[in-house]
Specification:
Rossmann fold, Helix Hairpins, Heat Shock Protein 90, five-stranded parallel sheet, five-stranded mixed sheet, 7 helices, 43% helix, 17% strand, elongated, phosphoprotein
Length: 334
């Protein structure tokens, strides 16, 4: 629905007639309800406050506003700029008068497609949050039961088996942390809370949850420190290690090393065909046919959230090598 915010009767009727060849049009100016608002330069000042309020009330949605401008009217460039508070521009496009139907239809079509994409993304995010809420709720209960039973079991466990019990407890704590992270990401998007981390410590923590007793890990330099979100970095390593075990076998050797501007994770498995290296990072793609296809997508999202870059190449042993570059280091002069 195109809503005309044009006060001059003759101009409003002419625009309505032009638009009705393709769109549903309303000339009601009491409530701003259209999918797209078309306002002329002589009426804009009257509706500016209401348009501003509309944009402020729904900052994450997209309600396009198109301004019809006469040649003699000076355009305030700030109308097309993101506002100082980070809000969307008041005007999304400008069409010159006299209006040409072909040009106008093309501009409106592009904006309406963009609005539809925003609506679809909004609906997808709502479904994602609902799904995450359900999943995390259903996971929390069995997690709490398992932790409670573990506490009851602890006094009867021999000292020799106490180490195994601690491993189970750490795994349950890690699961609980993942549940919290998934729910937070579904609600707020993928954000980072960065701190200085010893790379070897993060790698060891990630390796501790990988069930592959025949696999080998070559750890990075113990002095290497990076600035990253601890949960996201840990999750990225876990998924890269798990991916190597799944595709290279239980006896895989995984090498984690330091690059000048980042880190690499390499294995001695069969590698990834160059034609598939972009596809494997897409959600739902699984080279084995039996996986969820989420592991490397999770890695890619964590890398993107930090502003890093992820590249897939071939390792010296002919396997897969993942390079994460653009990683921040602590300031040595601090």
């Amino acid at each position: 629905m195109i809503q005309l915010l044009v006060d001059d009767d003759a101009n409003r009727d002419a625009l309505a007639e032009l638009l009705e060849a393709r769109y549903d049009v309303t000339t009601d100016r009491n409530e701003l309800t259209g999918d797209l608002l078309l306002v002329d330069d002589r009426s804009f000042s009257r509706y500016r406050d209401r348009i501003t309020e509309l944009k402020d009330d729904a900052p994450s949605s997209f309600r396009p506003v198109v301004l019809v401008r006469r040649p003699e009217t000076r355009l305030d460039p700030s109308l097309l700029e993101e506002r100082s508070d980070g809000g969307n521009p008041l005007v999304d496009d400008v069409v010159g008068a006299p209006v040409q139907q072909v040009v106008l239809f093309r501009r409106l079509s592009n904006l309406l497609v963009r609005r539809k994409q925003f609506e679809q993304l909004e609906a997808q995010n709502e479904r994602l949050e609902e799904f995450a809420s359900v999943v995390t709720h259903d996971l929390r209960n069995p997690l709490q039961v398992a932790k409670g039973r573990l506490d009851l079991l602890e006094p009867s466990v021999s000292a020799a088996d106490r180490e195994q019990l601690e491993i189970v407890a750490e795994s349950l704590d890690r699961m609980e942390s993942i549940v919290d992270t998934v729910l937070a990401q579904a609600r707020n998007g993928l954000t980072t809370d960065r701190s200085e981390l010893h790379l070897r410590s993060v790698v060891r923590d990630a390796w501790s949850v990988i069930e592959a007793p025949d696999a080998s890990l070559i750890e990075p330099d113990g002095e290497s420190v990076v600035v990253a979100d601890p949960d996201h970095l840990l999750t990225a390593f876990e998924n890269l290690f798990r991916n190597a075990v799944e595709h290279a076998g239980d006896d895989v050797t995984i090498d984690v090393g330091v690059l000048e501007s980042g880190v690499y994770i390499a294995d001695d498995g069969p590698g990834i065909d160059p034609s598939d290296r972009e596809n494997v990072l897409e959600r739902g793609y699984s080279g084995t046919g039996g996986g969820t296809g989420l592991g490397l997508d999770i890695v890619a999202n964590a890398v993107e959230a930090h502003g890093w870059e992820l590249t897939i190449t071939e390792s010296d042993a002919g396997g897969a090598r993942f390079e994460i570059t653009g990683v921040e280091r602590p300031d040595p002069d601090r």
